[in-house]
Amino acid sequence: xTYHLLNLHGDVLAxxxxxxxxxxxxxxxxxxxxxxxDTELSHFxxxxxxxGPGDELTALWHRTLTGWDLAVQADWSTALPRTDARRxxxxxxxxxxxxxxxxxxxxVPVFKEPGPTVISxxxxxxxSRDLADVRSFYWNSYEQLLRRKGWSDAAVSSLDxxxxxxxxxxxxxxxxxxxxxxGLVVGYVQSGKTANFxxxxxxxxxxxxRLVIVLGGTLNLLRGQTQRRLDMELIGQENIxxxxxxxxxxxxxxxxxxxxxxxxxxFVSHGHRPFNIERLTTRDNDYRSLLQGIRALEIExxxxxxxxxxxxxxxRAAARVMVVKKNKSVLTNLVKDLKKIGPIxxxxxxxxxxxxxxxxxxxxxDPKKWESGQIQRTAINGLIxxxxxxxxxxxxxxxxxxxxxxxxxxxxxxxxxxxxxxLISLPRPVGYMGVQDFHDLxxxxxxxxxxxxGIYEDTGDRLQEAMxxxxxxxxxxxxxxxxxxxxxxxxxxxMLVHESVKMDDHADLALRINTQWHQAxxxxxxxxxxxEKLLTTDFARYADxxxxxxxxxxxxxxxxSRARQLINxxxxxxxxxxxxxxxxxxxIDLDFDRTPNVWKILVGGTxxxxxxxxxxxxxxxxxxxxxxxxxxMQMGRWFGFRPHYRDLVRxxxxxxxxxxxxxxVDLYEAFEAICHDEETFRSQLSRYAELVDGKxxxxxxxxPPLVSQHLPWIKPSGRNKMFNAELVEIRSPGQWVEPTxxxxxxxxxxxxxxxxxxxxxxxxxDISVFVTLSEDDRGNYIRYPAKTTILSHDHxxxxxxxxxxxxxxxxxxxxxxxxxxxxxxxxxxxxALVLPQTSGRTSVSARILGSQPLTLVQRKRNxxxxxxxxSGMSHRQSAERIAGLHxxxxxxxxxxxxxxxxxxxxxxxxxxxxxxxxxxxxxTGGGVDPxxxxxxxxxxxxxxxxxxxxxxLRFRAIDSAHAESPFVSAPA
Length: 972
Prior knowledge:
It is a single chain. The protein is α/β, with parallel strands linked by helices and 972 residues long. Helices cover 35% and strands 15% of the residues. The chain is built from 31 helices and 30 strands. It has an eight-stranded mixed sheet with strand order 1-8-2-7-6-3-5-4, with helices on both faces. It is globular and about 105 Å long.
């Protein structure tokens, strides 16, 4: 391809910064007279068709077309992003014909992967695409680095789109009035959140933010990982060297990365810079309270008489970046130094990035223990609040994969970190292995069969098999690298063993693994026979047929020997990772950045979960239980990017792990339930993200309940993070709902009886006889008569919505479920009302508000003023049969007669509390005073195996400014 053609197309597309324009007309103006063929579209088409891999002209158009496909703001097209219609509008504007369109569509398919989901307040538009293009030095440099690392054009464009969505919702750094936006970005576990906030940081610095504080990790190792990533990909060689001569060893003393094997080759180089970035922390040194630190924060102004935030000063000033631990002493020193700087603090546009924002940052103090209603904050939360107060132009953006604790923050706590301005859910990246890759949500079973190996009581612990898989996958990686597959992703090869949180258990487990390793016989005939069988029965069956594979185990055997040597380097294949201090981590030599090859079995607990990237993780052995969903999800270290070896990933997971002395749980099932919780969260965001008439449907503070709980034993987050959580819905398909907190006042009881009166009047005069069959199929049964009627769903909902309750908060979550009669809700169209007519020792019949005689039953309230139980257990079986929970039976004909699809059952009991007197003594003239009867009901919605609804709980944050509102208002 001629450089004339590439240069011409580059010039033409550069002139289309605001959108596509007629290509031929622009090309004619910009072309050179001696290259007329370059302007011909047929010549362009032929070039695209003939182009091979790595073609520069195709890459140029790939970047451009994908950017236009994804553009959210496109005044040149009314079509939605990511659609064929948008691409057609692009071609129309360019003036391209059918043949060229076809060639480009084959070379650059329309990118249709979903973009970020945004819930946002209305905001003042300031960060336009034009401004982003004009001030884009550090972003352009970061973008080019990502492309050199192998990122696709679509992936770069997607990151550009998502990071732009964050920055445009920050406050304009040049605005006169100070405003600090608060936002939250939700990604997936180990899915590239750091890349997103690096992009956000680059764009924010370009736009004028001059102080960036990244809150990262609680250990310096984790903080150092983030520092290195920013230094390597954003800050760059020149800003690290700060003028030092890289060829002078004396000048490089005390300068970072001189011992790093990636320095300087893989660190971005900027050359000439419009302004510098000064680091206030380094890879090995967190923020320190020093005079130099204070001076470094003092920003000189070109025009001293004007505020820093005016463009004349702002765009000439250097940016400052620091990466600090979420540590009380470190943040206290930073706050103290900031207080010494003085009034200019109020002029500094600041960006605070909080990595893993649900860890340590959230206020976990119990509101019930606050004195005089004054908010008491935990240490880190209080220091973040002080930072935001000292820096009124500070924008706070939290990043997490487990946002449940963040959305439970009180929206009306003005000094807290609730995302009042925006909440953004990042899309699942292309190539990412997440929960959906290990769980068959569509039911075909392929993911589980390929990647998951269950540990049951009858399988044994399968630890030796997991270790064999680790050796075998290491050998397969070496084989692939030796047969043309890029070896970069194979630099590290790890296995994670996570059974307990206790450090003593880790030591015992490491000893057991080490012993098994040395007894495994990997150099013996038996050992090789075991590996050969595993290759044949497992890894060969599920191998990626696009990657090289050995024909026989004999072809792989030399690589098995090399893998064993790498794993056993130093004489010990096991590394225990459970220390609480940075000194511990420096001793175990577990630095994936500085160590050429980490091929080890890692044993640990919490320190191997949140924030710790286990590079090269291929085999996971997981058996630890927990009762918090966010904790469990963060332990999913097997999620992430596995280029060229995703077919080798294996998860050995406990399917019958003890939770209590009498209860076992399925951890694989638990992760699947969390997946449902997470997808419910994201689908709720998507539901309310679409703009209506160009405006948001809801603000972050108005979002209806987002957080669900699908398993009863695993809550969304820790108890201390849910003080401000309110249960708002209980979805219970196929389960009984039996309210027991009824009122005690005569007026409320009379009111409730009046509400039920139309239903009582509609009861049949005839008796229906229901039959409860013995579960052991011995022919035993119990019969009971009942009065019956059919209520529409709206009729029952009207009754339940207007009843008075002793504890409305206990029934409101059930009522929320009843209000949704769709397949995703209670899936019920009408209800069979069954009022049992018993003849027990305490039973008596009476008219209620003129009804036919009905049986009164006796139930006693407990010490808390609620009933322990309402419905008779012998009455439930027929009711469940009507609702479709059990098969119909010829022995229970009335239940079969009442059964209809989407029909639920209500058992209704006129209850007399013995504290009010003997039931017979309360009957006067055949009637009973309605003020002395509790109309108590138990109901079971229709059971439909094909319905979308699943049992779960749903929570929301309590807004202290609207504490009396039963529900957050939102559009229907």
